[in-house]
């Protein structure tokens, strides 16, 4: 080895070791996290621009690490995907969300809400996904119309025929809401997308960021909204943070918004309070 190869090399090696052991530690932590109850679901409201009501939420996974605190999904979802743990964890999320929907329906004064769960590519490739979802809905006593699913554009394009089949099966189980997440970041035409049984496009945050001034973002948002509507799809804008963005989206016919301007993702009780406070305004 190059033991006298200079500081650069030594630094690089020790940094690589740290990263590798970090990663291994994280992987082991994730393997135990389900059993130890360290996963939580946060909820971020979706606001209907037509009447200003909160119509539901997106469920977002959180990992409460005993030492590190709340770990962001950007850090651990890729590891769950690579190790295949995402299948188990994904089922756990579906279960946790359906239990929560049922709890709200039976014990709270909340209006009916539709809650969206993010699916991973691996889940979508499983031929039994529709059955898994239907079983969870039945066990928890939740009607399929209250569960929404989000799949990304790139997940659909990975194996389009498989995606069509699985989504059709899911739809046949009574699921009414399937969204295409991060829309505009992949490489598919809207007309091609139309072969998928979908209802809604989520305009990616990267296009919302530049509103209402960036000319490209204006053109892209307006085009997505117009084309989506001509195909009878709903449009959700994600990552809305500022008043000017909201005003632009409202003026340009966007249907639903999500973002820090309404609320960041919050634990279930805080979300319930938010909905109640909002409906009393
Ligand atoms: P995503 O599905 O695109 O979720 C939206 C992300 O944007 C969330 O990050 C949310 O907290 C964040 N966000 C929402 N509004 C704003 C805003 O106004 N400003 C900014 N800066 N950010 C905003 P989060 O919760 O860290 O999740 C990151 C990604 O992790 C998600 O992106 C999704 O791809 C994945 N993910 C989260 N939960 C799950 C899950 O249960 N299953 C799977 N398969 N993936 C998940
Ligand atoms: Ca999403
Ligand atoms: Ca998204
Ligand atoms: Ca996004």
TrEMBL record:
<feature type="domain" description="EAL">
    <location>
        <begin position="23"/>
        <end position="279"/>
    </location>
</feature>
<protein>
    <submittedName>
        <fullName>Bifunctional diguanylate cyclase/phosphodiesterase</fullName>
    </submittedName>
</protein>
């Amino acid at each position: 080895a190059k033991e006298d190869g200079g500081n650069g090399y030594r630094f690089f090696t020790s940094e690589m070791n740290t990263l590798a052991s970090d990663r291994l530690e994280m992987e082991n932590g994730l393997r135990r996290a389900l059993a130890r109850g360290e996963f939580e679901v946060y909820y971020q409201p979706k606001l209907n621009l037509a009447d200003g009501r909160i119509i539901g939420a997106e469920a977002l996974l959180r990992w409460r690490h005993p030492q590190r605190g709340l770990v962001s999904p950007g850090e651990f979802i890729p590891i769950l995907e690579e190790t295949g743990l995402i299948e188990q964890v994904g089922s756990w999320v579906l279960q946790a969300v359906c239990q929560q929907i049922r709890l709200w329906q039976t014990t709270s004064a909340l209006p009916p809400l539709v809650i969206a769960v993010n699916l991973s590519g691996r889940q979508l490739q499983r031929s039994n996904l529709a059955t898994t979802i239907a079983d969870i809905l039945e066990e928890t006593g939740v009607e399929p119309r209250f569960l929404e699913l989000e799949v990304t554009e790139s997940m659909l394009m990975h194996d389009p025929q498989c995606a069509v089949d699985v989504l059709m099966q899911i739809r046949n189980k009574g699921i009414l809401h399937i969204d295409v997440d991060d829309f505009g970041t992949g490489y598919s035409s809207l007309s091609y997308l139309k072969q998928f049984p979908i209802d809604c496009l989520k305009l990616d945050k990267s296009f919302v960021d530049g509103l209402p001034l960036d000319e490209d973002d204006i053109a892209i948002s307006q085009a997505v909204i117009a084309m989506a509507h001509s195909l009878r799809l709903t449009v959700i804008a994600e990552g809305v943070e500022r008043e000017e963005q909201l005003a632009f989206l409202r003026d340009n016919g966007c249907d639903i918004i999500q973002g820090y301007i309404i609320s960041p993702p919050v634990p279930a009780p805080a979300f319930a309070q938010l909905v109640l406070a909002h409906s009393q305004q």
